[in-house]
Write a structure and sequence with these properties.
The structure holds two protein chains of two kinds.
Chain A lengths: L14 H6 L14 E7 L5 E7 L1 H5 L3 E5 L28 E2 L5 E7 L2 H10 L1 E6 L24 E3 L10 E9 L11 E6 L5 E5 L4 H12 L6 E4 L15 H13 L3 E4 L15 E9 L5 E13 L11 H4 L5 E11 L10 H21 L3 H7 L4 E2 L4 E2 L5 H12 L12 E2 L2 E13 L5 E7 L5 E4 L9 H13 L6 E4 L16 H23 L12 H8 L4 E7 L4 H4 L3 E12 L6 E11 L6 H21 L4 E2 L4 E2 L17 E6 L23 H13 L10 H6 L2
Parallel strand pairs in A: 1-12, 10-11, 14-15, 21-22, 25-28
Antiparallel strand pairs in A: 1-5, 2-4, 2-6, 3-5, 7-15, 8-13, 9-10, 9-12, 13-14, 16-17, 18-19, 19-24, 20-21, 20-23, 24-25, 26-27
Helix pairs in contact in A: 7-15, 10-11, 14-15
Chain B lengths: L4 E4 L3 H10 L3 E4 L5 H6 L7 E4 L8 E3 L3 E5 L4 H6 L1 H6 L1 H8 L4 H6 L2 H6 L5 H4 L41 H7 L3 E6 L2 E6 H4 L18 E8 L9 E6 L10 E10 L2 E10 L6 E2 L1 H7 L6 H11 L12 H17 L1
Parallel strand pairs in B: 1-3, 2-3
Antiparallel strand pairs in B: 4-5, 5-8, 6-7, 6-8, 9-10, 10-11, 11-12
Helix pairs in contact in B: 5-9, 11-12, 12-13
Classes of the chains: A alpha+beta, B alpha+beta.
Bound molecules: flavin-adenine dinucleotide.
The site of flavin-adenine dinucleotide has 29 residues of chain B, from strand 2, helix 2, helix 6, helix 7 and strand 8.
Amino acid sequence: MKHDMIGDPLNRVDGRLKVTGGATYSGEYKIPGLTYGVLVPATITSGTLVSMDTKAAERAPGVLAVITPFNAPKVPGFQPGAAKPVKGLKLFNDDQVHFNGQPIALVVAETFERATYAASLVKATYKAAPFETDFHKNFDKGVVPNEGKYKDYVRGEADAYKNAPVIVEQDYMLPSEMHNPMELHVTIAFWDGDDKVTLYTKSQGVIGSQRAIAGAFGLDPANVQINSRFVGGAFGSSLRTWPHEFAAVQAAKLVKRPVKLTLTREQMFTLVGYRPLTIQKIGLGAAADGKLVGITHESHSQTAVYEEFTENAVNVSRFLYASPNANTRYKVVPLNVGVPAPMRGPGEATGSFALESALDELSYKLKLDPIELRLRNYTYTDPERNLPWSSKFLKECYQQGSERIGWDKRPAEPGTLRDGEWMVGYGIGCGAFGAYRSKTSAKIKLLPDGTVNIQSATSDIGPGTATSMTLIAADTLGIPADKITFELGNSSFPVAPTQGGSQTCSSVGSAVHDVCVALKQKLNSLAGLPTDSTAAIDYSSILQKLNLPVLELTQDSQAGDEAKNYSMYSFSAHFAQVYVHPLTGVVKVKKLVAVVDGGKIVNRKTASSQMIGGAVGGLGMVLTEEAVFDDRYGRYVNGNFADYHVPVNADVPDIEAIFIDKPDPIINPVGSKGLGEISLIGVAAAVANAVYNATGKRIRELPITPDKILTTT
Amino acid sequence: MNPFNYSRSSAAAGAIQSLVKEPQAHLLAGGTNLIDLIKMGVVAPERLVDINPLPLKSVEKTAAGLHIGALATNSEVADHPLVLQDYPLLSLAINAGASPQLRNMATVGGNMMQRTRCNYFFDTAMPCNKRVPGSGCGALEGYNRMHALFGASDHCIAVNPSDMNIAMVALGAVVHVRGPKGERTIPFGEFHRLPGDHPEKDNTLERTELITAVELPASAAAFRNHSHYLKVRDRSSYAFALVSVAAALDMDGTTIKGARLAMGGVAHKPWRLHEPEAFLKGKPATEATFRQAAEIAMQGAKAYRYNKFKLTLAPNAILLALQTASA
Ligand SMILES: Cc1cc2nc3c(=O)[nH]c(=O)nc-3n(C[C@H](O)[C@H](O)[C@H](O)COP(=O)(O)OP(=O)(O)OC[C@H]3O[C@@H](n4cnc5c(N)ncnc54)[C@H](O)[C@@H]3O)c2cc1C
């Protein structure tokens, strides 16, 4: 691939629509006859529903239906022995309450306000059972998940760090964090007869949603149309089809009208996942020269009693640094809470916070610069799988980032640098995230006027997918970007993976590349040229000459054996300069530098924005975000946007995104490895380590709020 | 949210009449607090009396000082040239609160009357004596990181969340109210109350009274050159105070001629610090003086499980606010 245009900054092709309100989000479609669904939450934390009084709600003005476990029509996929059983919570299917806030009824009415009011009239009688939501109290009830990659891992000798000359052994705590995208989760569903249904829904993967809905309701997937053209942020919260989406479909069937179901902000704290509360123990042992002798990484995180959630929290410690001995242990603690979900950077961000903090602690014990310590343990092959990297430029990340942040000003002795009354410090945090590629298909249409339309059922939750796909097509076809439109977010388009795991550019980008190549070959043969001819093609005249109204092609694209023969990761090194006020404990991040080896960068502009967005997510993780539970009631006490603090603009410093921008020669024809997750992975440790450098206070429980600075000695 | 009636009132007498006639009528100003509370099911009014048409928006100089109408918006007050010139502390405090969008809607009267942000007050599924008298205090043994250090009771440890109120109390404002029996004034420091046995009562306004204005005394303009509002919070804007301090000094060279000091985020009412003020008078503006004042301010502080850090933060914030104000 020649990359003439790839890498050039291109404005978002849908930017104008988004900032002018011209982009229609899922909840904004005006469907004739629309009705509104409002969920009624359980107010106990565990137990059985004995009875429900829905009379007042049913009699309230404008109410069309009140669905409860006692009257709900059965959803085929919810039943035992179903052909395609639905995973997780099945609403209104039985009388069990597993967590506080679990929906126990759905009211459908002519307006949202009427549904909301009627929902407040639904009364439930429960038989409450004892419940457990206290993670710390139940820590010892952690279980090893069933899936293979979560089993204990040992390379060399387990816990070898204990016998090393220099040791760090510490616990690191991360509270539950909510995705909290600005756009609320919403689904509009309507049926056409008994066997066809259409959804406008907030989804990171329309094909995944299509399969889930079809499976649950026993439909032919071709009869399930999913639309999700614009998504107002998701961060992983729309990777799966959630209970309320099935409920909207179920309700629409019952009332025989379109139903729109929007979650409230408070409901989004329990019904659409979150980054789970996690305690990790890291043991590091090193020789006096800084060479690691052993790494031990253990993690306990919370999950739901009704569904197991797992993520790669400990895996990073198996391969990021050379160490002859490494072992990991991973457990989940089932509690009466909503089930977690991957949240941007997922487990890798959690794990990196612990590992990179511990490494920082080790650097001070060794009196070694933290970058030097990382260099001494640099690994040129993957020590976990004993395979070569497909590409790795982490050293280059260290070097460029340290220059840009001004690492030479970092004091070796913590708490010694001041600017006026503020204490100043510098920190680094690194990470890695698997570079994936899934089978993807794309359809291309060339019209006689020389314009090109490409479709694939991918999503855009913010990175600017259509923009980067347009660039890849322009580059491959050798035509200007403004001749190309790229469409996504529609389940009737060719199959694409869910937008998650930083694989869109790699997977969909490859399909776009391949379908463009196929088009060129087809045109060559139509013109009587050898298929691989590189002679310039006049796209605007060729169809006219052949008298063809359109030329249309669909192409599948998938990986070969690359992942068997190589270890493929994106790598990051984040650098932070922080100011800490000794009297108020306020931490201000003054500058962040995010350096990434993500392979080839397709669009510098959207890529930078993505890095900045991820860094801001990391700032929230390290400084402000925490979902607080009151274990006496099993309820969140800050389930709203005023008390759950995502960073605001005033918290966001100058963030510089630097790309190594070297194409990965193995992973795919574009050479791009992915940015979405890595943009966040390592940020928390960089800031926490900078706080230590500024103050000499090591804060191992996130978020680092002023109280912790003031009370840590 | 329950169904309710809505009416607009263009005369103060009419609005007061509505309150007298209907015990479940509530006044609606900017709506930024009341509407939220209705949506959360914390308040269930039978009638909303929209008072926005009342002629209570003016900010003007009077013989006594500065008269600020109860319906002047928070932004109008914060940006008003007379406020900026004579009472910059008030401007700083208002601008430290909420967000520009909210301040554009919020009014002076509404700000004074805003309810606590205690999470147990907001969540109808948890106990709260302020919301449902006698139901218990969820915060006492619960998540009480934002809660009071001073003047709390076993029935309620919530704090008054307003930033504006802290400056108002420091500047010695006077509240003008009107009720069925006529008009009266209340010193700002006596407007809000401590929870005691009746945490459901935030203040001393009668249910049938309307706030018409707040007046800042002319004498408080003496602090115009040396005032500071310090708000310590979990993020740089759009967060309630962990602790805030309004500090205003009248300086003669390096000597403090007079001082005004109040704290937010530490009590059920804006917490004026009379004793430290008296202590500062006539003293040199040094770190040692300020530390002593802070120490006096902290006498009688009582912390709970999650807000112990405020015992360190509050005196630090006083020191820093005084240092900044005196500079
Ligand atoms: C997300 C969020 C963040 C916020 N952050 C802050 C912050 O950091 N600092 C801060 O100080 N505030 C903050 N606020 C609160 C904000 O300042 C208040 O909501 C606002 O000041 C209320 O004014 P209003 O005019 O909208 O009142 P309304 O909501 O209209 O009324 C509030 C109460 O006052 C009563 N009332 C109104 N006017 C009168 C009158 N003239 N006489 C008698 N009673 C009256 C009403 O009946 C009602 O009970 C925040 C609010 C939100 C929603």
